[in-house]
Amino acid sequence: MSNITLRDISKALNISVSTVSRALTDSHEIGEETKKLVLAYAKEHNYVPNRMARSLKVGKTRSIGVVICSIDNNFVAQMLDGIDQICTESGYQIIIMQSKESYEQEKACINLLYASGVDGIMISPSLQTTDFTHLKELQSQGFPIVLFDRTTEELTAHKITANNIKGAYQATTHLILSGCTRIAHLNSKSTLAITRERFEGYKQALVEHQIAYEEDLVKFCNTSINENTDENVATAMEELLKQKPQAIFTATDLLSTKALAYLNKHGYKVPDDLSLIGFSNSDLAPILNPPLSTVRQPSRQIGELAAQTIINLVKGKDIGPAETVLLDTELQIRKSSSR
Question: Is the dihedral of CA 281, 310, 135, 55 positive or negative?
Answer without folding.
Answer: positive
